[in-house]
């Protein structure tokens, strides 16, 4: 069961904050939020935190199913927020997805500009299918450009917001030493940025992290992608955010199994004003788009680190 929890920790999660703790009780594994790891500026309503818990839960379910265990998930909101996963005996399934768990990564680089076949897109959609969540896939250049404009608009707003930049910087690990000390956060090498000695790391952050160059990077990266997937929950509440995380994690694992990379471009759903513009563009004015993810093919980048699972048990 500890090993199942370790598989859960390999999930995608906002800023690699790893906002989770685990409790083992008989045949039940519980995933609890670690509220000390909130990112209040980018995620004021804990949306990303709950999505991250959903990603972790899906990894745990897949790892359990792949070793012949049945699983039943229940979500408890409120002061006792937690996801309980009860284990029993069941058929062995989801082996291909389980094998993709340690290989999945966010690949924030330029992709090869080639399309993904219709049959692969169908597999991605099927994997992401989750009650309470819609997954929209855009592969037309005109749609990608429209999403790109919203990414640039929202990214510009974030880069102009000192509180956003300060919070992000707090989670960036410029040097291998910093990354190894904390085993969390966004290590420069995993974001395709240069790894440099500590004495130039700090001045370099300000030099490289500029609005115009970041926007140019997103233009190149999005135009090099085969498509963009948008995840939309049926309702705007923690239970659905967990479902969105589960859907995304399966999408990412199925992508990995097919040799397809992905990276989040969530700026349009993080800036409230742009989010409503994005809902209108989607023709879903009553819904809240939850995640925006580009996909395509590219070589792997270094993997991001995780804290040891033993430190996360309560
Ligand atoms: C809810 C959520 C929001 C995220 N938002 C972004 C984002 O806006 N930009 C980005 O580059 N990565 C984003 N990520 C990816 C995380 O930064 C990434 O999962 C984490 O750093 C761990 O790295 P890994 O996915 O390579 O294991 C997000 C992930 C989740 C689950």
Shape: globular
What would CATH call the architecture?
A: 3-Layer(aba) Sandwich
Low-confidence sequence ranges: none
Give the amount of beta strand, in percent.
15-25%
Q: Mind telling me the CATH superfamily name?
A: NADH Oxidase
Which fold does the CATH topology refer to?
A: NADH Oxidase
Class based on secondary structure composition and strand pairing: alpha+beta
Amino- and carboxy-terminal Cα gap: 14 Å
Number of strands: 10
**Count, helices:** 12
Short summary:
This is Tat pathway signal protein. This protein is of the alpha+beta class.
Please provide a written account of the structure:
By secondary structure, the chain is α+β, with helices and mostly antiparallel strands. The protein has a single domain, classed as NADH Oxidase (3-Layer(aba) Sandwich), CATH 3.40.109. Helix content is 44%, strand content 18%. The chain contains 12 helices and 10 strands. A 4-stranded antiparallel beta sheet has the order 1-2-4-3, with helices on one face. A 4-stranded antiparallel beta sheet has the order 5-8-10-9, with helices on both faces. It has a two-stranded parallel sheet with strand order 6-7. Strand 3 (69-76) and strand 4 (82-89) form a beta hairpin. Helix 1 (2-9) packs across helix 2 and helix 2 (47-66) packs across helix 10. The longest helix has 20 residues, at 47-66. The protein is globular, with a radius of gyration of 19 Å. The model has no long low-confidence stretch (mean pLDDT 96). The chain binds flavin mononucleotide (FMN). The site of flavin mononucleotide (FMN) has 18 residues, from helix 2 and strand 9.
């Amino acid at each position: 069961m500890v090993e199942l929890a370790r598989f859960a920790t390999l999930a995608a999660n906002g800023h690699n904050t790893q906002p989770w703790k685990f409790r083992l009780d008989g045949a039940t594994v519980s995933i609890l939020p670690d509220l000390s790891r909130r990112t209040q500026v980018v995620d004021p309503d804990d949306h990303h935190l709950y999505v991250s818990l959903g990603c972790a839960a899906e990894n745990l379910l897949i790892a359990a199913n792949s070793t012949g265990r049945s699983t039943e998930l229940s979500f408890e909101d409120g002061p006792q927020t937690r996801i309980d996963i009860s284990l029993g005996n069941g058929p062995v399934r989801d082996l291909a997805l389980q094998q993709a768990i340690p290989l999945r990564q966010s690949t924030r680089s330029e992709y090869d500009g080639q399309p993904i076949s219709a049959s692969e897109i169908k597999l991605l959609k099927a994997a992401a299918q989750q009650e309470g969540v819609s997954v929209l896939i855009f592969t037309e250049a005109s749609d990608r450009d429209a999403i790109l404009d919203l990414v640039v608009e929202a990214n510009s707003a974030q880069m102009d917001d000192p509180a956003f930049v300060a919070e992000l910087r707090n989670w960036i690990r410029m040097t291998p030493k910093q990354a190894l000390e904390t085993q969390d956060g966004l290590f420069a090498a995993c974001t395709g940025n240069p790894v440099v000695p500590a004495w130039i790391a700090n001045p370099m952050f300000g030099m490289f992290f500029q609005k115009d160059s970041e926007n140019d990077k997103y233009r190149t990266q999005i135009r090099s992608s085969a498509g963009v997937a948008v995840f939309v929950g049926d309702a705007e509440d923690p239970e659905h955010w967990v479902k969105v995380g589960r859907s995304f994690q399966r999408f990412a694992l199925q992508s990995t199994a097919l040799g397809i990379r992905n990276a989040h471009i969530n700026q349009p759903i993080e800036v409230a004003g742009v989010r409503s513009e994005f809902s209108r563009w989607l023709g879903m004015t009553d819904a809240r788009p939850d995640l925006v993810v580009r996909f395509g093919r590219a070589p792997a980048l270094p993997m991001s680190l995780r804290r040891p699972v033993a430190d996360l048990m309560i």
